[in-house]
C-alpha cells in the first residue's frame, strides 16, 4: 500500500509524512503518482465541501487501485468538514479512513496506521 497525497497549503502532505514516519509506508505526491498497486488517497476539502479538481482528475484516471480515502479539512467548516472524503468514499465505494483537522493529531495518525496495518495483508488485492 502506498500513500498518495494531494495538497494545496501543505497540511495533507504533513499528515501523510507523519503516517509514513510511523509506518514506513511509501509516500508519493499526487502529481508524481502513477499507481500500479493499492494506495490510500489523502486529500483535502475545498470550496464548501468539494473534492479538489486535481484530486478529481487523478481519480478519473487512477481509481482502479484506490483502497481508501483520508480528507484533511477544518472544523470551522461545520457540516462540510472533510466532506471531500464522503464524496470520494461514496463515488468509489472505498472506506473513509479518517477525517482530519488540518495536519492531524496523534490519534489521527494512529487511526490511519492501524488501518494500513490491517490492510497490508491484502496489499496485492
Ligand atoms: C477556499 C477554501 C475552502 C475550504 N473549504 C473547506 C470545506 O468546505 N471543508 C473543510 O473541511 N475544509 C475546507 N477548507 C480548509 C482546508 O481543507 C484545510 O485547510 C486543509 O487542511 C487544507 O489542506 P492542504 O494544506 O493539504 O491543502 C477550505 C479552505 C479554503 C482556503
UniProtKB/TrEMBL annotation:
It comes from the Bacteria. Pfam families: Flavodoxin_NdrI. This is Protein NrdI. It comes from Deinococcus piscis. The gene is nrdI.
Amino acid at each position: 500500500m502506498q500513500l498518495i497525497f494531494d495538497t494545496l497549503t501543505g497540511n495533507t502532505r504533513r499528515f501523510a509524512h507523519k503516517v509514513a514516519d510511523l509506518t514506513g509506508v511509501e509516500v508519493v505526491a499526487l502529481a508524481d503518482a502513477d499507481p500500479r498497486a493499492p494506495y490510500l488517497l489523502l486529500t483535502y476539502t475545498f470550496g464548501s465541501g468539494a473534492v479538489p479538481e486535481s484530486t478529481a482528475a487523478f481519480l478519473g484516471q487512477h481509481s482502479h487501485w484506490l483502497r481508501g480515502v483520508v480528507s484533511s479539512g477544518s472544523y470551522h467548516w461545520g457540516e462540510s468538514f472533510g466532506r471531500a472524503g464522503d464524496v470520494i468514499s461514496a463515488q468509489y465505494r472505498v472506506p473513509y479512513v479518517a477525517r482530519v483537522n488540518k495536519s492531524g493529531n496523534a490519534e489521527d495518525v494512529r487511526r490511519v496506521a492501524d488501518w494500513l496495518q490491517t490492510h497490508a495483508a491484502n496489499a496485492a488485492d
